[in-house]
Write a structure and sequence with these properties.
By secondary structure, this protein is α/β, with parallel strands linked by helices. It has a single domain, classed as Putative cyclase (Glucose Oxidase, domain 1, 3-Layer(bba) Sandwich), CATH 3.50.30.50. Helix content is about 15%, strand content about 30%. It is built from five helices and twelve strands. It has a seven-stranded mixed β-barrel. Strands 2-3 form a two-stranded antiparallel ribbon. Helix 4 runs parallel beside helix 5. The chain is globular.
Length: about 220
């Protein structure tokens, strides 16, 4: 069975606070049955993956990241329904550790996207986050990709953040893992066992991130 872990996006979907604009959608038709849609959006709106070009001049870009870094065995860290603004700690991760192994993919369930997606700006500004210490803990497991069903970077809640404030992005990206954001329905996955997961992202040249379709096969 294929389980879709991707939120939908549309004209009422807003980008994070630094952009704070809805997805621009223009539908063009010539006659019934023929349609071409134009979309204008930040690459970090909705379900997406982040690469190190997002915060570093010499960082990786989408076309240089192999798919095997976001496809493979994944395990769920079920943290329950975390309160708004809660910062995930290393102790919480250790308690929820499903036995993650080097080269696998870590999926963190907070249930935030399930509860708040579509309620902007609340989705972003009230989201649980990942503490820098927790990000370091995750990288230490050897996980090759780390996915969140929330908006994990505390600094990004502010429209005036500075690139140097992207601490969690830096820890995860410089630690060799791909950061994945805005997953949903992680509670539909079995906790504690290995599952097949994929984050199929668009191959934009020179892009620091890319929209993605997240799914698991169980």
């Amino acid at each position: 069975m294929i389980i879709d872990l991707t939120v939908s996006i549309g004209p009422d979907t807003y980008a994070p606070p630094s952009v704070n604009r809805p997805v621009g959608i223009t539908v063009r038709t010539k006659e019934p049955g023929w349609q071409v849609t134009e979309v204008q959006m930040a690459l970090h709106t909705g379900p997406h993956v982040d690469f190190s070009k997002h915060y570093r001049v010499d960082g990786e870009t989408a076309e240089r990241v192999a798919l095997d870094r976001v496809v493979g065995i994944a395990r769920v860290f079920d943290l329950g329904q975390l309160d708004p603004g809660h910062a995930i700690s290393p102790d919480e991760l250790a308690a929820a550790d499903p036995g993650i192994r080097p080269g696998e993919i870590a999926l963190l369930r907070t249930a935030w996207t399930d509860r708040a997606w579509g309620d902007f700006p609340r989705y972003y500004v009230d989201s649980p986050t990942c503490s820098p210490a927790a990000a370091t803990w995750l990288v230490s497991t050897g996980a090759k990709a780390i996915g969140f069903d929330c908006f994990p970077e505390e600094a990004a809640k502010r429209a005036d953040y500075r690139p140097a404030d992207f601490i969690v992005h830096r820890i995860i990206g410089d630690g060799g893992a791909v950061l994945m954001q805005q997953l949903t329905a992680i509670d539909a996955l079995p906790a504690g066992i290995a599952i097949q997961f994929a984050a199929a992202f668009l191959k934009f040249e020179g892009a620091e991130g890319a929209p993605a379709r997240f799914f698991a096969v169980v």
